[in-house]
Amino acid sequence: MNRADSFLRVVDRLYAAAMEPAEWQPALESVTDLLQAGHTILALGGEGGAGLAVGARVDERDLSRLLSATAEGRMGPLDFGRLPVGAVVMRRTILPDREFLESDYYNDVIRPLNGFHSAFFRQELTSRTGFALAVCRPRYADDFAVGDRTILQGLLPHFTHAVELHNRLRISEQRSESLTRLLDSLDTGVILTDAAARPLLMNERAEQILREADGLAVTATGLAAATPLATRRLREAIATAGTSGNDIDGSQRAADKPAFDRSGRISLMRPSFRRPLHLRLLPIWRLGAENFGAPAPAVAVFVDEPSAPAIVDRTAVADVFRLTRREAEIASLLGEGRTLREIALELGLGIGTVRNHLKRAFEKTGTHNQAALVAAVSRFTRLRVRPPGR
User: Fold this and answer.
1) Tens of pLDDT along 372-385?
2) pTM of the predicted model, to two decimals?
3) If you placed Cys at 206, which of 19, 92, 189, 314 could pair as Cys (CB 3.0 to 4.6 Å)?
4) Integer Cα distance of 256 and 253 in angstroms
5) Ranges of each domain in the chain
6) Rounded CA gap, 279 and 305, in Å?
7) What is the pLDDT of residues 256-268, one digit of tens each?
8) C-beta of residue 194 within 8 angstroms of C-beta of residue 284
9) How far apart (Å, rounded) are the C-alpha atoms in residues 344 and 354?
């Protein structure tokens, strides 16, 4: 393999290391081979890569000694922080061989590393982030030549891009981990989605709700409600919130569609006839958070599964839909989560009689199935208040 091919191989490995920190050492190994060096050391500093130092063909104890010397300020004129930015520098141009050989820094730190000839470069990415690279050869080897310096200078922009990408990914991961811990501390389900309703991050409570697939589930194409029509309306609402950043604007719709209001709230009916799930859509920008990872989420979906018992206002149901007292009773009990058999037992009626009343309730409410009727009467629910002391 010629030097040009080896150079390209090094570049490929640098960008692989940006995506996966474990690849930094193989990347530095390839740099060491390219320049026929004894070892190579990379030190990353700042917000994204704080504390990360990687060495190729360096004993961990010797690397620790070097880092300790750096912290103690024993490097003198070779201190990375004093090196010029953006250019390759040879050690001999900073500290002549004789002075270097007589220094405590060489005898205590560098000689155990079997280093003597060195080429450095340092780059600052921001006021708080940057990196330094040192490529070293033993004393008995030839010093780095002009051609070696040219190769290192050619690698500098690739190192810069790779380290910058590494830092950005690490920052995103750290923020994502912090966000996940925060979300998991909430009792409410929270799902972060893109504008196409595809979940990108969710907390444990949301995972539990989605596993039940009772009114809200996740499919290969994104979040889904209990019916195709409800799914379409849900995704339209998420798309509106995610692409425009505006609150959801809508009105009360048919019983088999999610119920929207102007604040971005949605009610999803559940096939189990349990109380509806209540969703609140909030554009990510409204949370003051933008960079949680890639791709960036657009909408936060808060999912509340009401646990408090509720009752349906039977008088209101009867008045609005012009139901008889018995029809309103059956429709209301159904809306509170009772099965037909439970309703028959509670009211002392035969199951056939309950079905007949239910059929007339369908006709008067303009619904055609139990789920639609539950959706219609659930608009008249109120929480059941427990008496004090119970």
Assistant:
1) 888 788 778 754 44
2) 0.52
3) 189
4) 8
5) 3-174, 186-304, 310-383
6) 9
7) 444 444 456 788 9
8) no
9) 6
Structure tokens at 182: 């925060």
Same CATH topology for 186-304 and 310-383? no
CA distance 342 to 60: 71
Sequence-separated (6 or more) residues with CB below 8 Å from residue 264: 237, 241, 247, 248, 280, 281, 282
3-174 is classed CATH 2.60.40.420: no
User: Span 186-304: which CATH code?
Assistant: 3.30.450
Tell me which range, 67-81, 128-142, 252-266, is most confidently predicted by mean pLDDT.
Answer: 128-142
